[in-house]
Structure formats: structure tokens, C-alpha cells
Amino acid sequence: MKKSVKKLAILGATGSIGVNSLHVVEKLADIFQVTALSTHVNIDLLLDQARKFRPRLAAIAGAEPTAEQRRLFEQLGVTVLTGPDSPARLAELADYDLLVNAIVGSAGFLPTMSALQRHKDLALANKETLVMGGELVMSAARDNNCSIVPIDSEHSAIFQCLMGENPQTIEKIILTASGGPFRTWSLEQLRQATVEQALKHPNWSMGNKITIDSATMMNKGLEVIEAKWLFNVPVDKIQIVIHPQSLIHSMVAFSDGSIKAQLGQPDMRVPIQLAMTWPERLGSDFPRLDFCSVKSMTFEEPDLTRFRALAIACTAAKTGGTAPAVMNAANEAAVGLFLERKIKFLNIAELIDTAIQTIAVVTSPSQEELLQADRQARAFVLQHYSHILR
Ligand code: NAD
Ligand code: MG
Questions:
Q1: Which one in 16, 325, 357, 390 has a CA-CA gap of 20 to 30 Å to 37?
Q2: Which of 11, 103, 154, 156 to mutate to test the pocket of ligand 1 (most atoms within 8 A of CB)?
Q3: What CATH number is given to the structural domain containing 179?
């Protein structure tokens, strides 16, 4: 029987998740066709990808291609869109069955909304979309009958644990966290943490922003909010457990006392492939987990004093309204400042907290109010960071 081909639009194609998604496409070339790709500024890599995957449409959000680059895209038959709104226009215009959203940050929000309004299914890596506007995103998915399958490894694990289960029987979601590179560091040491140290994640190789988020543990805070929306569970039913080996990717505890876990090597291609092939699970030759070579699996409670960002995120999740959008945008701006070496590691959480305390929360925000909260929080951090330096 001839397999049907799934057309993919991949946003953020030049990043860590984007490149891994294209790796999965190469392995399953008979079932996937890439019709659209986007980048922020990495135009040369986008051109290489266009040569290999022959999309019809490309978006470049943060730079203008040179005349030569334009000519090369044209030669390949690729129409190029440019500008900050080009990923959303791509999501509106391209011919695809599934949008893989691998953009980093709240820039992924509008493309997600555009895809859902066109009744398109999503493979979602861009967790910031759900943190910023989870309520609007999930209701757009419901209203337009779209599926959102998570790429984030923890959420893919929970999604898999919930297959065939009645959601009413969920007692608790157990979100595992590696603890990041600073898991055992004291507050005193954290005060002096450098960009290079924060970028050395023990188990995963990822883009810079999420790697810093893992070091502050804001990543786990974002993931609590992501899980709340994806699986419709209150924050109180989500428990974070530190599991430094990153072999159990997350668990679900059920009302009868049973717990299901999903395990595997830490390799993002596994959840990416599942999100792209769902509702089917196809074979792969990615490295297997051999239990006889696992030395130990350990578990710890997270420390909310050393990792203040985690506490801030749980509070923002409970406050709701625009609070998570403000937190997310303040975090993006503060992480940017840390990467530029303009603030210190602990200033990141401090700035986020101050932004949340200062900017008034709007309850049940519209799309425009969410975008406004995002802009306001970024502007606040950029204007105030010099005041908190000491
Ligand atoms: P990355 O920095 O490696 O790649 C980000 C991609 O987004 C790039 O293609 C870049 O060109 C594009 N981009 C950046 N800013 C943009 C903007 N303003 N407008 C449009 N495009 C923009 O990041 P990543 O590690 O691939 O992460 C992507 C998303 O996936 C993030 O939301 C992250 O939290 C999530 N995620 C990543 C991993 C991982 O292993 N890397 C795991 C789980 C979840
Ligand atoms: Mg994750």
C-alpha cells in the first residue's frame, strides 16, 4: 500500500530542534515532504537546507538576505518572506499538514495561532507559546479541531503515559528535571556563575536560551505551565522531581496508586519523531537505553531558594492572566542580558521578579493584551537592569 505523504512546515529550522527535525525527515524521507522552512538570521544554513529539502516557501525573520542569497533561493524555486512577522505569514500561506514550531521564545506565539486558525495540527517545541497564551492557544486548538503534540521530552513522556488513560484518573504529574549544571552549587557559587559555566548542560545539547533556562531552572517553571495547559491539570497536581541522569523523562501517577514512566536515552529525535508521525509510532535506529549499563537512577527535591526562578514560575502560573506572559518575556530579556554579560546569573530571577511585581496583571487577556504584556516586560527589563546591578 502506498504511504500518504505528510507535508511539513518547520519554523526555527536552523536551531537545535529544527536541525534534529530535519534529521528525522531524512530518515523517514518516504513519508515526509518539507514545504516551508524559517530562520531568524542563519541564512546560509537555511540555503543549505533549501538545497536539500526543496521547500516552496522560506521565512527570514531577523535579517535581510543579500542580492546573491535572494538569487540562490530563486534558483531553487523558493519564495522568500522577510521581517519579524514572516514566520506567522508563512504559517498562514504555506501548503502543509503539520506545523513544527521550533522557534525559541514568544516569537513563536503568532505563528502557532495562525496555524490553528487554519485548522492545522502542531508538533510543538516552542513552550513559550503555551506559557504566554496557553488559554487562547488551547481554546483555538479545541475550536478548530487541531492536535498539539509536544516535542518537549517531559511532555512527550506525559503524553505517552496518558495514551489509553482516562484523564479523570490522573492523580499527579511528576515532571522530572536534570537539575542543570548548577544542581549542587551553593548560593555563593551561583552568585559568581559565568556564561560559559551556565552553557555547559550535563545531559542535553540545546540552543543557548533553553540552556540558560535549565541552569536557572526557569525551564522547569516554563514546563510546569506548559504541562498545565497541554494536559489540563492544576499546578498543584504537578510535582517536580530532580533526576540528574535524565533517563526517566517524566511520569504520571494515577488514582489507583499506579505510576507510569517513559524512559529512554536523552535524545530529542525520539520525541520529535513521535510528534511528527503521531498518531503512528514508527521505528528508528536511534541509540537504545540498556538497563544493564545504567549505574543508578536518583531523585531529589528541587531547592526553591537557590533556584528562585522555579518558585516565581509556580506563583505566576497560579496568578494566571498576563502574569506568565510577563514572566516569560522578562526572562527572555534577562537571559539575553546575561548572555551579553551585562548582568550576573542571579540577576536573571531578580529582574523577572521585579517585572512581575511592577507590571499590573490583566485577567482573561486578549491576544493583543498578551502581546502588550510581552512588550512591556521586555522594555521594563531593558530599562531597569542597570538599577539592580551591585
Ligand atoms: P535554538 O536557539 O537552537 O533555535 C531557535 C530557532 O528559532 C532558530 O532556528 C532561530 O533562527 C529561530 N529564531 C530565534 N529567534 C527568532 C525570532 N525572533 N523570530 C523567528 N525565529 C527565531 O533553540 P532550540 O534549542 O532549538 O529551542 C527551540 C524551542 O524548543 C524553544 O522553545 C525550546 O524551549 C524548545 N525545546 C528545545 C529543546 C532542545 O533540546 N533544544 C528541548 C525541549 C524544548
Ligand atoms: Mg524539557
A1: 325
A2: 103
A3: 1.10.1740.10
Q: Is 226 in the pocket of ligand 1 (CB under 6 A)?
A: no
Supply the pLDDT for residue 226. 98
Q: What is the percentage of the chain residues whose pLDDT exceeds 90?
A: 97
Which pLDDT value is given to residue 1? 56
DSSP assignment, residue 29?
T
Phi–psi pair at 20, nearest 5 degrees: -65, -35
Strand 170-177 with 248-254, pairing: antiparallel
The residue written with cell numbers 498518531 in the block is 279
Q: Which CATH number characterizes residue 23's domain?
A: 3.40.50.720
For residues 64 and 191, membership in a common domain is answered with: no
Q: How many domains does the chain have?
A: 2
Can you list the residues of the chain whose pLDDT is less than 50? none
Give yes or no for residue 336 CB within 6 A of ligand 1. Answer: no
Do you know the residue count of the chain? 390
The ligand placed nearest to the CA atom of residue 211 is 1
